[in-house]
Write a structure and sequence with these properties.
The chain has 1 helix and 7 strands. The protein has 147 residues and is mainly beta. It folds into 2 domains: 1-35, no CATH class; 44-145, Sandwich (Immunoglobulin-like). A 4-stranded antiparallel beta sheet has the order 4-3-6-7, with no helix packed on it. The protein has a 3-stranded antiparallel beta sheet with strand order 1-2-5, with no helix packed on it. β1 and β2 (55-60) form a beta hairpin. The chain is elongated.
């Protein structure tokens, strides 16, 4: 809030400056270290699906850190010419912590029995990376055809 009572969203550097000037006014030491990073450090680089088993495999660029959380959504089988709509996605699985490998298998029907697909079926896959603040930090979308 400024001197006129108007509320403003401050940029990172402006908030840093405002906090430190307020601390200095009160005779307190300034903040010198930045806040911890809230974003998961790795992204999902690819996904694959096998129709015979109903398993979707999310592959990470590198090993996720302990504490990273990724929520995976898929669509049921859709026409190969169709584009998945936002309302088509349903939660299919959650990746937490550090998987033992870079490829993490997810069985969507274990959570939602309607997320069925077969070989040569197109599905949409969406992966939300959740930060330590509990908010979605990034979203990666894929459209794939199951093998």
């Amino acid at each position: 809030m400024d001197v006129f009572g108007a509320s403003h969203v401050l940029s990172g550097i402006a908030a840093f400056t405002r906090i430190n000037s307020t601390l200095a006014t009160g005779g307190l030491p300034p903040v010198t270290s930045p806040p911890s990073d809230v974003t998961p450090g790795v992204q999902v680089t690819s996904v694959a699906a096998v129709g015979a088993t109903g398993i979707v495999t999310a592959t990470f660029a590198e090993q996720p850190a302990t504490g990273d959380v990724y929520i995976v959504y898929t669509t049921p089988a859709i026409s190969t010419g169709a584009t998945p709509q936002k309302s088509d996605y349903r939660i299919a699985g959650v990746v937490t912590g550090a998987p033992a490998t870079l490829a993490y298998p997810i069985t969507p029907t274990g959570i939602n029995p309607k997320l069925v697909f077969g070989a040569d079926n197109k599905i949409g896959v969406l992966v939300d990376a959740i930060g330590t603040n509990g908010l979605v930090q990034s979203t990666t979308k894929f459209e794939i055809v199951a093998a």
